[in-house]
Amino acid sequence: xxxxxxxxxxxxxxxxxxxxxxxxxxxxxxxxxxxxxxxxxxxxxxxxxxxxxxxxxxxxxxxxxxxxxxxxxxxxxxxxxxxxxxxxxxxxxxxxxxxxxxxxxxxxxxxxxxxxxxxxxxxxxxxxxxxxxxxxxxxxxxxxxxxxxxxxxxxxxxxxxxxxxxxxxxxxxxxxxxxxxxxxxxxxxxxxxxxxxxxxxxxxxxxxxxxxxxxxxxxxxxxxxxxxxxxxxxxxxxxxxxxxxxxxxxxxxxxxxxxxxxxxxxxxxxxxxxxxxxxxxxxxxxxxxxxxxxxxxxxxxxxxxxxxxxxxxxxxxxxxxxxxxxxxxxxxxxxxxxxxxxxxxx
Length: 346
Description:
With 346 residues, the protein is α/β, with parallel strands linked by helices.
């Protein structure tokens, strides 16, 4: 693999770690900004580059504008397409989540096809492209989810973020199969946690941890099982897939599944007496009455709360050689970094 790599979503929570790791390995990393003159958006990445053997190049591009990535793609040997809207706060899911995810992926992959140099595309998808609700595992008689599973229960109105990810990934596979110039490899991370590089990172992961330690869930956390993975492991998996000629297909990236109360117990053991953590598991019937205050729909509660969740991560371990960071280490590093960046009280 040659050394010029285009990374979309480079200033994001996952993207910034990928850029940091690539620069440390001496790659020339191309990133994009809608307006290059707003250097404050990516200044911290330039600082990392200045202290690294690698080099940073900045191009102007708009994810939703066809042809916008052509210039940055030409001369790049691979594209790591990390950019995608991740928000659980929206008014119009089609306009704010689904169309940007699908159209952005289409535009970036078309730029790969238009180039004369791109040989590989690594797409950041998600485990929510594999399943929509925790109940799906039971309904499909599965002991665990694998890379063979695709989310077929989410819609624009139920789990729209999950729907945006599966639609974007399916669009990527369709485009990949229609050409022979570049190879597509997909990463399907669980909920990404770990230390943010920048305080400016607008991430649901940071919001989630703020909610956990702020007392928002003090009177009770839903019995909701979630898969977690360290942001640094996700970055390393992308780079291994980039450098490994045998990497192919989808890869579930998940270190461990725990419930919200189990996660609370980990935080409590690491930072005893420090934060107003949930005191108990909230009864499901109470969530039907109060869930709206946390943005939980009745359908989400009925299909997710109280159901088991499990992932088979053996492909990522065997094919990519990942040794997952223990969740306790991930949470400790995340909270300490959030304290340092003044995102939560120290």
